[in-house]
Each structure stands twice: as C-alpha cells, then as structure tokens.
Amino acid sequence: AGLWSEQFGNLNQATEPLERVIRVQPDHVEALAALKDIYTKKRKWDALYEILGREAGLASDPEARLGKKIEMAELCTERLHQNDRAITLWKEILDETPDPAQALDALEKLAEREKDWDTLAEVLESRAESAPTEPEQVEQLHRLGVLYMERLDRPAKAVAVWVRLLE
Fold first, then answer.
1. Are 164 and 141 in contact (CB under 8 A)?
2. Which end of the chain has less Cβ packing within 10 Å, N or C?
3. Distance set, CA 85 to CA 35, 73, 105, 116 (Å)
4. For residues 148 and 157, is the Cβ–Cβ distance under 8 A?
5. What does each of the 167 residues of the chain score in pLDDT, given as a tens digit?
6. What does residue 95 show for φ and ψ, rounded to 5 degrees?
7. Would you say 73 and 93 are in contact if contact means Cβ atoms under 8 Å apart?
8. 160 in helix, strand or coil?
9. CA-CA distance, 107 to 55, in Å (whole number)?
10. Secondary structure (3-state) at 68
11. Angle at Cα 30 formed by Cα 24 and Cα 36, nearest 5°?
12. In 3D, which of 115, 96, 32 has the Cα closest to residue 73?
C-alpha cells in the first residue's frame, strides 16, 4: 500500500491492500489513518464515514471519541446529505459534550431543514433553560410557544410555555 501510494501515486491500488489489513486486523491504526486520507482525497464519503466510526469505536479517550462523532455528524450533513443520521449523531454528541453550543446550532438547522419539529422543540427548550440573559430566554420561549401552537398542535404545552414566558 505504501509503495502504491507514495512511490507510484496510485491511490486506487493502495486502497485494496489497506482494506485487507483492516479485514484481518480491524484496529490497525496506521491502516485506518491511511484509508482515511485516501478516502478524503478520493471523496469517498461513505467509506470515510465507516472509517471515522471505527476510529470512534477504538478511541479510549472520551474527548477523542467525541471529536470523531462530530466529524461523522458534519460529514453526514455536508457531504452525505443524510440529515436523519446527522440528527441522531448530534443528539448523542449533545449528551456527551460539556459545551453544547455547536450541537444545538447544528440540531436547530437540521431540524428546521427536515421539519423535525419535536427535535426543534427539544433544542429551543434547552436553549431557554440555559439562556444567559432574560431577553435571550424570552426569545427562545416565544419561539417554543409558537412552535407548539403552529407546528406541533400541542396547545397545552404552548399554554405552559406562555405561562413561563409571562412569569
């Protein structure tokens, strides 16, 4: 694989031996890194997603695993256009991350794009809970109340949000 990629510059020929190494030894870090580089250069996003998943599974450090999941979620959103899978990943990331801002931003955009109103409601609720200022909290609660009334047809939840807003 090294000869094919480094000496001959033929990434197609280098891929097959690396994939065989992974079949024999699924946790071979060097082969995974080389395949990741090749798949990125060749824009084979599905294969790159699988490699990132393997790397995430092998990572013993929670921060490194979180980083791989973020890469996977961004790849699903930007390259694979698999928004449902991206939403699932961002929800997992949200549960694991100490700083939820990036995950909440991504989830909000994806939920609006996919018209996943329940996910959007979760995001707005989370943002309202953690809003640093009262005007920001008011804005999030207002958006949540409108969402419950117009998109989700849950008047009881909307009333509860409006009551919170008035308080």
1. yes
2. C
3. 22, 8, 16, 13
4. yes
5. 877 877 777 788 889 999 999 999 999 999 999 999 999 999 999 999 999 999 999 999 999 999 999 999 999 999 999 999 999 999 999 999 999 999 999 999 999 999 999 999 999 999 999 999 999 999 999 999 999 999 999 999 999 999 999 98
6. -70, -25
7. yes
8. helix
9. 23
10. helix
11. 95
12. 96
Nearest to 106 by CA among 71, 57, 134: 71
Q: Are 45 and 73 in contact (CB under 8 A)?
A: no
Per the listing, tokens 């809003």 go with 131
86 close to 77: Cβ distance less than 8 angstroms: yes
Tokens representing 98 are 């100490």
In the numeric block, which tokens belong to residue 2?
């090294």
In this predicted structure, what is the pLDDT of residue 126?
A: 96
Q: What is the model's pTM?
A: 0.86
**Other C-beta atoms within 10 Å of 52: how many?**
22
Q: Which of 113, 111, 151, 108 is nearest to 126 (CA)?
A: 108
| Pair of tokens at residue 68 | 């791989």
Cα distances (Å, whole numbers) of residue 26 to 41, 64, 163: 22, 18, 55
Check: CB of residue 45 under 8 Å from CB of residue 72: no
